Every structure is written in structure tokens, then in C-alpha cells.
Amino acid sequence: MESARSQPQAAPGALAAFARFVLCGGGVGLASSLAVAALASWVPWVLANALITVVSTLLATELHARFTFGAGGRATWRQHTQSAGSAAAAYALTCGAMLVLHQLVAAPGALLEQVVYLSASALAGVARFAVLRLVVFARNRSRAAATVRAAHPVRATPADPASLCQAA
């Protein structure tokens, strides 16, 4: 008898995937926010954000491949590269938001910086979800669905003889 673990599972629906994305990406994002603030006390903020963005993108891509989008394993190099592109856009958005903040407020406090950074990160996160779901992990979703369909084919039922007579 085949165990449930060995049967391929279909990718989660959009709502479930978004909830998982928020859980994984949000968790990594919150940890990144604290790490950027801590590292920025030793190096320039832009460098701290770049370093933390690279590490958090690698971690989040693995989490999204394994858990969020049901890819069924580790992320491929292609997926890491595509995810890095969306992370680069997120990096530009967070840097831009922080530069605007520092233009508007001469000496913003840590709380205001966190609010601006997390708000920009949330906006970038919604865009990244769409890119990851529709582009980066889309092939794996269609492969997983095809595997499920192949494992559980829909059987055609024989035609009703009465309906054949009516059609003629």
C-alpha cells in the first residue's frame, strides 16, 4: 500500500500560498529588518541592507520553494536567479524609501525608520508574491499538477446508449 507521503501533492491555491508567503517571507523580513538595523550600526545602511537582502533572499527562496509554492524540493539555480531579480527591485524600493525619509526628516528615530522600511518591504513583498507565483515557481506548479493528474487519471465513462440514439 502506498503511503500518503509518497504521493505527489498539488500546489496550494492562491490564498493558501499567500498566507504561507506572508508567514515565511514576513518572518524572514522581520528578522532582516532587525539585522539591517543592527548591522547598520557598524557599516553604512545601504551596505547593511544589501548584505542582509542577499542572505534573506537565499533563505526565503528556499522556504518558498519547499513550503509556499509546493515546488517539492530545493530551489533551482534558475529560481534563485529569478528570485534575486525580484529582490533587487525590492532592495531598490527599500533604499529609495529610506533615502526619501532622510530627505524629509533630518534625524529620524529608529522607530520611524523601521516603519518606513517595513512599509516599503510589505509593498515590495506583495509584488514579489505575484512574480514568484506567476513566473518563478509557475513551471513547478504545472509540473506538480500534471504529476497529480497522471497519478490519478480521470476515467471516461461509457456513453449512454440512449444518448447516442438521440444524437443521431
Structure, explained:
The chain is an all-alpha fold. The protein contains six helices and no strands. The chain has helices spanning 14-39, 45-68, 77-104, 110-136, 138-151, 161-167. Helix 1 packs across helix 4 (110-136) and helix 2 (45-68) crosses helix 3 (77-104). The longest helix has 28 residues, at 77-104. The radius of gyration is 23 Å and the shape is elongated. It starts with 13 loop residues before the first helix and ends with a helix. 23% of the residues are buried. Residues 1-8, 147-152 and 154-168 have low confidence and may be disordered.
Average pLDDT across residues?
78
Major β-sheet profile = none
Q: Which structural class should the secondary elements be placed in?
A: mainly alpha
Give the DSSP E fraction (strand runs of 2 or more residues): under 5%
Q: Share of helix among residues? A: over 70%
Radius of gyration: 23 Å
Distance between the termini: 46 Å
Please provide the ordered H/E string of secondary-structure elements: HHHHHH
Shape field? elongated
Question: Would you identify the regions where 5 or more consecutive residues have pLDDT less than 50?
Answer: 1-8, 147-152, 154-168
Number of strands: 0
> What's the helix count?
6
